[in-house]
Amino acid sequence: MKLESTLPERPGFLFVVPAFNLFGLLLVFFLLGPSFVSQSGVAVELPVSRFQMERQADTTVVTVTAGEPPGYWVEREPVSLGQLSERLDARRGSDSAPATSVLLRVDKGVSVEVQRKVAEIALQKGLRVYLLGQPEGAAESNADE
Question: What is the CATH number of domain 59-144?
Answer without folding.
Answer: 3.30.420.270
